[in-house]
Amino acid sequence: MSDVAVAGGGLIGLSTAWRAAQRGLSVTVVDDSPGTGASAAAAGMLAPVTEAGYREEALLRLGLASVERWPAFAADVERAGGTPVGLRTAGTLVVGFDEDDVRELTALHAYQRELGLDAERLTPREARRREPSLTPRVRGGLLVAGDHSVDGRALHAALLRAAQDAGVRLVRDRVTALRVDGGRAVGLETADGGTVAAGTVVLALGAHSGALPGMPPLPVRPVKGQILRLAGAGDLLEGTVRAVVRGRQVYLVPYAGDRLIVGATTEDRGFDPTVTAGGVHDLLHDAIDVVPGISELELVETLARWRPGTPDNAPLLGPGPLPGLVLATGHHRNGVLLTPVTAEVTAELLATGVLPEVAVPFTADRFGR
Ligand code: GLY
């Protein structure tokens, strides 16, 4: 029996397992195919400011707490995992194309300033000086120097190595149910008919966290995102570029090996895994509108996965609805960003029984019972 069984070997599950093992706990992660869920599709944006919606200040504060942890976390994972994670600290540029966009950028900038955030309005000329491959049609920009990115897949590979080297056991099987005894979570059941017994179970199944047999339902639903990977980008972009094109959001995230991610659709279609012609068309059309040079790149991968959405777009952290169950799920659009803070607070709760203050606004009881 382990001290802790973690359901899910994505970025959240693995990083939590690793941090818990570093605290001296015995940890088993259960996942039939670690890193092939949302972690595989993530663009890797560490973007608390440019991902924040109006009236999401609590989530923004959690994101800022996590982005602050990122440089040390990346260094730590690289040291322990032995491979780079591709942290880029070049910042994020948001651009607008017409008067409505520019009005929106101005309003967004005012709101960010009101919250004391670091964001700078740029003229079209300044925006293009920073990113010369932008279309000349750009009408204004907003530079958020503190919104970064990381290579999500490289991060997962390094975390897997780090966790295993720290003693985390990996069971490559699909989690089918929570095992409950006398009203307490006591382990996980798996597709091969086995059981992983544990003192505490951590639920880190991403979009699949809402309805695990044996567990009361949680307000987590799949939010589909289609994403594209392109090759041959060289130094086409300095950092992440985001825009709204005809009302649709698009982002372009450069990463190692001259690659570029274009994302992402946002669709309420349950666990539909289809990459659609319309989804790919819209993403490419909008990306080429923003950076025309993208039309020359090679399209190397298309992928659809599911964000774990919650009613307020913020994660579920801390004690779960049963004794012995801890939640580390519901990270919606911010799973990569929130990885360090989630791993830290969950490991602290597992090791000491105390949930750190920064995570308290994100317990599941905010939605009632
Ligand atoms: N964080 C970007 C997305 O979820 O599409």
From TrEMBL:
Residues 3-349 form the FAD dependent oxidoreductase domain. Pathway: Cofactor biosynthesis; thiamine diphosphate biosynthesis. It comes from the Bacteria. The keyword Oxidoreductase applies. Its EC number is 1.4.3.19. One of its GO terms (molecular function) is flavin adenine dinucleotide binding. It is an enzyme of class 1 (oxidoreductase). GO terms for biological process: thiamine biosynthetic process; thiamine diphosphate biosynthetic process. Pfam families: DAO (PF01266). One of its GO terms (cellular component) is cytoplasm. InterPro entries: FAD-dep_OxRdtase, FAD/NAD-bd_sf, Gly_oxidase_ThiO. It catalyses: glycine + O2 + H2O = glyoxylate + H2O2 + NH4(+). Keywords: Oxidoreductase, Thiamine biosynthesis. This is glycine oxidase. It comes from Geodermatophilus obscurus. The lineage of its organism: Bacteria, Bacillati, Actinomycetota, Actinomycetes, Geodermatophilales.
